[in-house]
Amino acid sequence: MKDLRPTEQWNTRLGAILAVAGSAVGLGNFLRFPGQVALYGGGTFMIAYAVSFLMIGIPLCLAEWTLGRYGGRMGFHSSAGILACAMRHPIGKYIGVFNIMVPVCLFMYYACVEAWTLGYAVNAVAGNLEFENMQQAEAFFAGFVGLGADGAAATFSVKTAGIFLGIVLVINLLILWRGVSRGIEVFCKYAMPALLLMGLVILVRVLTLGTPDPAQPERSVNNGLGFMWNPTKLVLEARESPQDAWRQVPAQEGGTLIGPIAIERAQAQVSASPETLRVRHIGIGEQLLNPQIWLAAASQVFFTLSVGMGVLSTYASYLKRRDDIVVSSLSSASVNEFSEVILGGLITLPAGVAFLGVAGLAGMCSTFELGFKVLPLVFGQIPFGMLFAALFFFLLFLAAATSSISMLQPGVALFEEVMGVNRRQALAILSTLTVLGAGYCFYFSENLSAIATLDFWGGNFLVFVCGMINIIVFSWVFPLSRGWKEMHTGSAVKLPNFMQTVFRFVCPGFLIVIFAYWMLGNAFGPERTDSPVMAHFRELFVEPSPVAWGAVLIMGFFFVFGTLVIKSSNRLDRAHLLHDKRRKTLKRRRATKYP
Amino acid sequence: MTIAGWITLGICVSLVIAFVTWCFYKVFTDEESSPDEHALRKKSARKKARD
């Protein structure tokens, strides 16, 4: 039987909130979110985003916090123990392995990206990021991460990522070595306010850029904000002949019209050839009818809040019995939204448009392109730009570090619990596995194939599956009546009753529909031949590649290892029987034995 | 940026700031779980036990 002695706990409530917020705030807030908003409808995207946040984000956060605190009260901190307790069935401990495997696999490539942010901060200080054009920025990035050939970044130069990966791994492991309250909590208590402060400094600088080049008045912060926040769109459409259908001119060629100058220019083009060109207004309703917006918004909410990874439940398991989980989970989500909507939404794209224009930025909205190519180029053109670049990349490094340490904690908790080892021994085992995995992601750097593969299977596919499992367990297996009571224990706020319907039907239904739509589109839709799902399957079975099989082996090894360790240990054997009544009996017995 | 864009931005920023303010107001005014309160209660309990 698992020992019920209190284990580690958060020292303060604020520390727990900042640690969870730190886990949620990551590169996605500053780089992925603005790219998604710009790609999918600007301000209209925010409607879909807000609905997804209320229907998926908040319920999933609350569910994971509640399951975590409940498991922690029973003496379990790993998802295996927590799910076994919550499901009251031994199968829970095997399902929980997925919740541990996902963050550990994510850590393997996230550590590499974290190393890039630290490396870019150092290179900004050294003055190596002063690029004059996009080609230079692209060449530096390619050399830094080793895009050209596998293993090309494994050097001791500051212009490659190798040494920074070593530093990042040591920092992460040292923080975890110190434990939950003395390591993770203390780090997040300083890192999170520092991150927000740095974000605000950069925000003020970006918003005061105005129109940096008066000769190019359409390249302004105002137009950047328009690119990001205008709810309706004006686009230029073209056709070959009057019989053909209208097609939108690509944004890179001036198809997206932001600001009076672009609109006037487009109208002049239309008057010159009205048969083949037209300006079209796309309203909010039309954009919201596009399922892609909903898919993108739901995915963004899902990934930004770190749900479906077992991290929230593990962190919540270190809470005290009567800690307010409703307010705490909402508070950590609010910090994440502040970083995402206010800092992420007002820094990255407006700065990019102010120097590159809408057309120059349009094709560069992916996370890595925006972060590691566009922004260094932009900072290079601002007075004292390298100072702001160093600040920005250090901000990204802090955001990534607070997230990456959270990804290993579920694994550490599992080994502590199941193998009966102490924290440091558990960390030693886990770090051996993760350093090997990070080495795989770092070595197979050609076209970032290893990172893309692990991100696809771990960061997209399995995260969604785990999120669905968690909400179904909470709403239907735990079940919700018990979960609702447990959630409100010690809470200063009572959620409205309609949220029970959201937990039970809306959130799981929303997730299942989105997942089914995504799978159908990728596997059976008209674009299936180019879809990432088919591409990854091709790499596995049609043209087998070592990278694809490496990712499968890593995830498969961790799953088999985790399952075998759980199976061979008897420490979780009765987790599913350990409910409140049993716990009270044990406490009473212990009190009689040791008065 | 259009007027609708400014309105969207204004609504989003206000909602987020209101959300953050409400949450942290609750965190710092909730006596039940305030860390200082916990510490004080523990201290006074220990003192009582000593007495």
Average pLDDT over all residues of chain B = 79
Low-confidence stretches of chain A: 1-6
What is the number of beta strands of chain A?
3
CATH class of the largest domain in chain A: Mainly Alpha
CATH fold name of the largest domain in chain A: Amino acid/polyamine transporter I
Q: How do the helices and strands follow one another from N- to C-terminus of chain A?
A: HHHHHHHHHEEHEHHHHHHHHHHHHH
Number of domains of chain B: 1
Percent in strands of chain A: under 5%
Number of strands of chain B: 0
The value of Rg of chain B in angstroms is 21 Å
Secondary-structure-based class of chain B equals mainly alpha
Largest interface: A-B, 35 and 24 residues
Task: Examine the secondary-structure arrangement and name the CATH architecture of the largest domain in chain A.
Answer: Up-down Bundle
Based on secondary structure, the structural category of chain A is mainly alpha
Helix share bin of chain A: over 70%
What does the main sheet of chain B amount to?
none
Instruction: Indicate the mean pLDDT of chain A.
Output: 88
Give the arrangement of secondary structure elements.
The complex is a heterodimer of chains A (595) and B (51).
Chain A: H1 13-24, H2 27-39, H3 43-73, H4 79-87, H5 91-125, H6 134-145, H7 162-177, H8 180-207, H9 221-229, E1 233-238, E2 247-248, H10 260-272, E3 277-282, H11 284-288, H12 291-304, H13 311-316, H14 325-362, H15 367-379, H16 385-419, H17 423-443, H18 449-477, H19 480-488, H20 498-523, H21 532-542, H22 546-568, H23 580-593
Antiparallel strand pairs in A: 1-2, 1-3
Chain B: H1 3-29, H2 35-50
